[in-house]
Amino acid sequence: MKSSEIQAEFATYRPKEYWTGVASGKSSSDATGFAPVLHPDAPAWFNQLIDDLQFRAVRRALLLGDVRSGASVLDVGCGTGRWLRRYIQMGLHATGVDATPPMLRLALERGTEAPVVAGVAQNLPFADARFDCVSDITVVQHIPTALQIDALGEMVRVLKPGGRLILMELIRGEGIHVFPRNPLDWIEQVASRGARLLGWFGQEFLVPDRLFVRAARAIASSERGAGLPLEHKSRRTPIARRAYWAIRRVTAPLSGWIDPAVAKVIPGKMATHGVFVFQKES
Question: Which of 64, 73, 81, 264 is the most core-located residue (most Cβ within 10 A)?
Fold first, then answer.
């Protein structure tokens, strides 16, 4: 990546400031801890749905990687501790690391019993070959592209030889704080740091819901282009927002329900995320 492109990424998005702001805006009103690490502005039911889908995928990845009870697991970008709590329930010895102290405070407030440490993914504060497994659930996708390879290399470094690395990352999408890669790119980047792929699968196809969101965005874009007066926009916004989420209250659960069937007929590269399981070379 050119230096000018790197500077542009950091000019529009400063990770620490962004995630500190997200964490600071969520307190006792979000008992689950989902909002700061999923979709901060979405209704609680939507974040619960996405969490359920991701939990299903993480269980599948742990099974694919043969990560057994008693294994030591580092959750990189642990956020509010939702995976730490589940890993402990599964009988795993979990440790969390996150670059944002307010996130760690939220994790402790929500009863996370695992030890948590402040640190960035590009420079993990742990010794070489420390953990049996490292998990990264939608974390590196929020790191500017130029630094992603360093973060992936650090995750492999702290793994024991033969240890497993589980990544759930964006393979499509756009935004000022998301930097996806296609599946082959994620695989090649990790392989270059000394780990081989055991397997991967698509996560969150959500076809009906994605089609509706795309249509809603197209309509909104058309209205902006038509020069709708600002006062009309502001009056319509609350109603439009309620209607938008009322429709998604149908399309999103339906999409989640049919996702297992969809995954059997649609290539994994068509999903929103990819879930990758690697093994560190001995």
Answer: 81
Could you write out the DSSP letters of every residue in 150-180?
HHHHHHHHTEEEEEEEEEEEESS---TT---
Torsion of CA 154, 158, 160, 161, to 10 degrees: 20
Q: How far is CA 119 from CA 94, 98, 124, 127, in A?
A: 16, 6, 6, 13
pTM: 0.88
* Dihedrals phi, psi of 94, to nearest 5 degrees: -100, 145
Low-confidence winner among 75-84, 161-170, 217-226 (lowest mean pLDDT): 217-226
Confidence bin at 25 (pLDDT 50/70/90)? low
Radius of gyration of the chain (CA): 19
Helices (H), the chain: 3-12, 15-24, 44-64, 82-89, 101-109, 145-157, 183-191, 207-225, 230-265
Answer for the pair 209, 255: CB distance below 8 angstroms, yes or no.
Answer: yes
Task: Provide the β-strand partners of residue 204.
Answer: none
> What's the confidence (pLDDT) of residue 26?
54
Among all chains, which residue has been given the structure tokens 């780990």? Answer: 195
Can you tell me the distance from the alpha carbon of 20 to that of 267, in angstroms, rounded to the nearest whole number? 36
For the chain, the domains span 3-205+266-280, 207-258
The length of the chain, given as a count of residues: 282
Residue 30: how many other CB atoms lie within 10 Å = 17
For 8, 149, 222, 262, the CA distances from 184, given in Å and listed in that order, are 25, 14, 35, 21
Q: What is the CATH architecture of 3-205+266-280?
A: 3-Layer(aba) Sandwich (3.40)
pLDDT in tens, 201-221: 999 999 999 999 999 988 887
- Contact status, residue 45 vs residue 249, Cβ threshold 8 Å: yes
